Amino acid sequence: MTNDTARASTALDTLIATLTLEHINDNTFRGPRSTEGWQRVYGGQVLGQALMAAANTVESDRAIHSLHGYFLLAGDPQIDIVYEVERIRDGGSFTTRRVRGVQQDRAIFAMSASFHKAEDGYEHQSTMPDVPPPETLPSAKALMSSMLAHLPENMRAYWNREHPIDVRIVDASRYASRDPRPATQSIWLRTNGALPDSPLIHQAVLAYASDFTLLDTALIAHGKLLFDRDIQLASLDHAMWFHRPFRADDWLLYVQDSPSASGARGYCRGAIYDRQGRLVASTVQEGLMRKRDTAFVLK
Of 114, 210, 235, 282, which residue is the catalytic one? Predict the structure, then answer.
C-alpha cells in the first residue's frame, strides 16, 4: 500500500467514524465534531449524521427514500452536534421522522426524513449522459495542485490533505477561463476505499458527498469559483431522494445544473447515476450566493 493510499484509507475511516453516532437515549444521538478544517461545519457532514440519527429509530426493513434539510446556523467545527429525533409517524408502509441538530442549546439544522418498506411497482427513469469514464480523468486533488499558490490558506490546507471521496471532474475547462457558460457540470465520485455492506452507510456517505459541488454549479453562469473572496456562499437547504440501491464505493456520476439564481440565492439540481446507467438518487439545493465587497479572484 502506498503512502497516498494509506492516507486516503485513513480519511475514509475518519468519515465512517464521523457518521457513527453515540447513542444517548432512544431519540437522541451525538455526532462527532468536524474533521474538515473549515471555519464552519461542512453541510454534508450534518446531512449524513442527521440521516444516521433518523435511521437509528426506524425498523431495519424500511430504507430512506427522501430527506429535506434546512441549514439554520453555521455549525462550530470544534463542538459535537446533538441530534434530537421526533417520531412523527410509523405507518403500514412509510415511517416519518423529524431531526434537529443542536449545538450549545441552539438548533443549527432541521430535517424531515421519510422511510419506505420495499415494494414493486412501475419503473422509468431519465437517461444517463454519455461522458468520459472516470479512469480517464484526473482526480480533483491533482487538478487543484496547479492552483495551490493562488488559493487562500484554508483552501491550500484542504487540498493538500487526503480526502474520503475521490472526485473526477468531467469538464475542467472552467478553471482555465472566467467566461460565463451554461450552469451545468458533471463529476464522478466514489469513496477512497471499500465501505461496509450496510446500505445505510452508503446512503449516508452519498448524502455527505452530495453537498460538496452542488451550489458551485450556480457559479458557472457567472464565471466564478468557490475560491473567490468576493462572494459569500452557504447551503440554505438540501433535499435528496433515493431511488434505487447503489454502492458509494463504486463510481457514481453526479450530473448537476442550476436553472436559476436571483435574490442572492442560487438554485441547483442533481441526478446521480451508477456505472450501469441507473438513476439512483436526485438532489435539489438552494444556497446563499451573495456579492461581497472584498474583491479576490483566482487569476
Answer: 235
What is the mean predicted confidence (pLDDT) over 53-67?
97
pTM of the model: 0.91
* Rounded Cα distance, 83 and 206, in Å: 19
Q: Is 293 a catalytic residue?
A: no
| 69, β-bridge pairs | 111, 238
At 134, is the secondary structure helix, strand, or coil?
helix
Read off the pLDDT of residues 248-291 as tens digits, 9 standing for 90 and up: 999 999 999 999 999 999 999 999 999 999 999 999 999 999 99
Residue with cell 456505472: 275
Q: Is 235 a catalytic residue?
A: yes
Domain boundaries, the chain: 3-117+136-291
Active site residue 9: no
Q: Which of 166, 185, 211, 274 is catalytic?
A: 211
pLDDT digits (tens, 9 = 90+) for 185-205: 999 999 999 999 999 999 999
Half-sphere exposure at residue 235, Cβ-oriented, CA atoms within 13 angstroms = 33
Q: What is the CA radius of gyration of the chain?
A: 19
Q: What is the predicted pLDDT for the residue at 148?
A: 60
Q: What would the grid cell of residue 93 be?
A: 408502509
Catalytic residue, from 49, 114, 256, 285: name it: 285
Q: Calculate the CA dihedral of residues 170, 172, 173, 179 and round it to 10 degrees.
A: 110
Q: Model confidence over 119-164: pLDDT tens digits?
A: 999 999 999 999 999 999 988 877 777 666 666 665 666 666 788 9
- The torsion angles phi and psi of 234, rounded to 5 degrees, stand at -165, 135
Domain 3-117+136-291 is in which class?
Answer: mainly beta
Residue 222 CA: distances (Å) to CA of 34, 136, 172, 225: 31, 28, 16, 9
Helix axes 199-210, 43-55, angle to 10 degrees: 150
